[in-house]
């Protein structure tokens, strides 16, 4: 679904980026996240993975380096098990079109308050 960005306020998205691979799910607890790798961006639920990559590049140009591949996961609280879990969202290459460029947070039932984990 499309968000009216003129009327809907963006939300703070906490993104955790790591070179080489994703963070271990054990790195995420109620009281602790891997904040040394945290990037904060403001966005909407209809943001695509390509748009998130652009937001990361605005914060730090290393995310836009030619040929860079970004693998996105949602990290969410599994309230039944009282621990965090993750779900693959997609992989994009910043230099060329990817199959998952247009996949949005909303397509993946992202809930405000969830995190995004990015392997670079």
Structure in words:
The chain has 120 residues and is mainly beta. 9% of the residues lie in helices and 33% in strands. The chain has one helix at 49-59; strands spanning 11-18, 38-43, 69-78, 83-93, 115-119. Strand 3 and strand 4 form a beta hairpin.
Could you outline the blueprint of secondary structure elements for this entry?
Layout: E1 11-18, E2 38-43, H1 49-59, E3 69-78, E4 83-93, E5 115-119
Parallel strand pairs: 1-5
Antiparallel strand pairs: 1-2, 3-4, 3-5
Sketch the topology as an H/E string, one letter per element.
EEHEEE
Biggest β-sheet: strands ordered side by side in the sheet: 2-1-5-3-4
Q: Do you know the CATH topology?
A: Ubiquitin-like (UB roll)
How many structural domains are formed by the residues?
1
- List the total number of helices: 1
The residue fraction in helices comes out at: under 10%
- Reading off the top of the CATH hierarchy, the class is best stated as Alpha Beta
Tell me the structural class.
mainly beta
- Stretches where pLDDT falls below 50 for ≥5 residues? none
User: Which CATH architecture would you pick?
Assistant: Roll
Biggest sheet overview: 5 strands, mixed
Instruction: Tell me the CATH superfamily.
Output: ASAP complex, SAP18 subunit
Shape: globular
Average pLDDT number:
94
> How far apart, in Å, are the first and last alpha carbons?
28 Å
Count of β-strands = 5
**What is the radius of gyration?**
14 Å
Q: Which band does the percent of strand residues land in?
A: 25-35%
């Amino acid at each position: 679904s499309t968000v009216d960005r003129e009327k809907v306020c963006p939300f703070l998205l906490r993104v955790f980026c790591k070179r080489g691979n994703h963070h271990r799910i054990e790195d995420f607890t109620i009281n602790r996240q891997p904040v040394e790798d945290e990037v904060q961006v403001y966005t909407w639920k209809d943001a695509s993975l390509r748009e998130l990559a652009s937001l990361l590049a605005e914060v730090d140009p290393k995310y836009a380096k030619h040929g860079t591949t970004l693998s996105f996961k949602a990290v969410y609280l599994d309230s039944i098990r009282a621990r965090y879990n993750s779900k693959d969202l997609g992989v994009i290459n910043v230099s060329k079109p990817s199959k998952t460029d247009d996949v949005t947070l909303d397509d993946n039932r992202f809930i405000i308050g969830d995190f995004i984990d990015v392997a670079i």
